[in-house]
Amino acid sequence: MALLDDILEKKRVLDDARPMPLTVVRDLADRFERGLTTACLLVEGVELSPDDIRMVLDRGAVLRSRPAEPQRLALNHRAALELMARLSFQGSGVVTERTIAAFHGVLYQGIDTNAGRYRDGALKDDAGASPDPAKVRVSMSALSGWLRRTEAGPEAAFEAHHRLMSVRPFFQGNAATALLLCNLILNRAGFPPVVVTEEDREMYAAMVERAWSLGDKTPFRDLMMRLLDRSLNLCLRSAARALRDFEPADEDDHGFGGDHDEGYGRRP
After folding, report:
1. Where are the domains of the chain?
2. What secondary structure does DSSP assign to 51-95, as a single string?
3. CA distance 157 to 171
4. How far apart (Å, rounded) are the C-alpha atoms in residues 160 and 179?
5. HSE-CB for 227 with a 13 A CA cutoff
6. What is the spatial distance between Cα 18 and Cα 242, in angstroms, rounded to a whole number?
7. Which residue, of 142, 144, 169, 201, is most buried by count of CB atoms within 10 Å of its CB?
8. CA–CA separation, 264 vs 268, rounded Å?
9. Where is this region: Disordered (predicted)?
10. How far apart are CA 42 and CA 37, in angstroms?
């Protein structure tokens, strides 16, 4: 529980630093948007270079010289983040399976005809380990009930991610949707979102699978706590810069560099 204690203390410090200057808020929003969009594509195994992601987001349109579908997913993810932001400020509203379906529907609009709809067969590109599609609706109803009863916070966010990935209700896009759900719950509790980087991808996939197949959720929870700690460190560094006449970070520094990042893990 030591890392969770550190996280709660860092959140307290971050809360004390609010409201931050608008320039700091905008810089953080841009960095998280790029980091989270990159994470969406990474966890779904969609190839699009960081430079292309930046260009697509900056232009807000699909580039003719690149494959269209990955770019549409990146642009759709921006719309999903906008939905997440709106829902984050609706403190009285409940998060349910309709929220989850809405996230998926926005993510895969114009990409998958089943966007926002539960699967009735095996997962795409699956080797036979799909959870039973006949149980999807019952499992999602149970998840919805649990979400209604659960107070927002890191533990609830990571458990929601795990439960959704145990059901995998959509033909594709389950991991990206689970991250949106997880980050919505974190945001509602006043925490920054978690970002999965290229350096995290293999560990993330392995821990998600271990939690589902073996029922061992501790390694997954520990990984997600470290990712949350990294995001808090990024926010705290930005807040500290604001106190000494904020200077924007380098264009290529998103603050999500994996284990080598100065804010990763438990370092202050």
Report:
1. 19-122+129-193
2. HHHHHHHHHTS--TTS-HHHHHHHHHHHHHHHHHHHHHT-TTSPP
3. 22
4. 9
5. 28
6. 11
7. 169
8. 9
9. 248-268
10. 9
What are 17's two structure tokens? 């630093």
Distances (CA, A) of 214 to 69, 160, 166, 220, 252: 34, 17, 11, 12, 38
Which position has the token pair 């895969």?
Answer: 108
> Which stretch of DSSP H or E encloses residue 213?
helix 201-214
**pLDDT, one tens digit for every residue, the chain (268 residues):** 689 999 999 999 999 998 999 999 999 999 999 999 999 999 999 999 999 999 999 999 998 888 999 999 999 999 999 999 999 987 667 899 999 999 999 999 999 999 999 999 988 766 556 788 899 999 999 999 999 999 999 999 999 999 999 999 999 999 999 999 999 999 999 999 999 999 999 999 999 999 999 999 999 999 999 999 999 999 999 988 876 654 555 545 556 754 434 332 332 2
Neighbours of 193 (CB within 10 A): 22
Q: What is the CA radius of gyration of the chain?
A: 18
Residue for token pair 């430079």: 51
Q: Give the other-Cβ count within 10 Å of 249's Cβ.
A: 17
Q: What is the pTM of this model?
A: 0.90
Q: How far is CA 21 from the centre of its chain?
A: 25
Q: Decide if domain 19-122+129-193 falls under CATH 1.10.3290.10.
A: yes
Q: What is the torsion angle, in degrees rounded to the nearest 10, for the CA atoms of residue 79, residue 76, residue 199 and residue 129? A: 120
